[in-house]
Amino acid sequence: DAGVTQSPTHLIKTRGQHVTLRCSPISGHKSVSWYQQVLGQGPQFIFQYYEKEERGRGNFPDRFSARQFPNYSSELNVNALLLGDSALYLCASRVRDSLLYGYTFGSGTRLTVV
Amino acid sequence: GEDVEQSLFLSVREGDSSVINCTYTDSSSTYLYWYKQEPGAGLQLLTYIFSNMDMKQDQRLTVLLNKKDKHLSLRIADTQTGDSAIYFCAEGWYSNASKIIFGSGTRLSIQP
Hints:
By secondary structure, chain A is mainly β. Chain A has strands at 5-7, 10-13, 19-24, 31-37, 44-50, 53-57, 64-68, 74-78, 87-94, 104-105, 109-113. The termini of chain A are far apart.
């Protein structure tokens, strides 16, 4: 079984640009979450989607948005990139929207903003 | 508030036990987790414990929870070189299943 897959694995963007990161959850997993991990820190919660609806949002500016598609894959969009957006962006999926089901994380997309 | 704190580094000899500690501030959390992150990889869920439990053992891993002191620990018995990684403590809430708060991680180094 394929795990959580994210694309691209690495990305370099210029300040002010826009970026789209993609995530395919494990087959059968309907819940997808996005986390930002700045170097040397733990992951910070950005969004969670379940059955294509937003179920949770972390403390991130409106420049960050996401959506989930009918096949449960997801996109994270970031507008007007800042240097501080440089980080590893992690996608995680689980079967249902419950703490009883642990998250499986992808290997992440490393975004560098220059 | 929600805050999870861990010490940044831990170094142990191969074959010894490793004990990684974590403190959290929100006593209403329902689940407490330990994740492992190897270089260049995502996070791997190692184990979790319900907030109404004191201890959970899973092969070489033992989790201890002290709710009074809001302290969580992960003991790895017979530490091996493959255990070298960053270990994250995290907490979750039944009332808000969407969000999990992570600590900053403890880097475990194994000395031969």
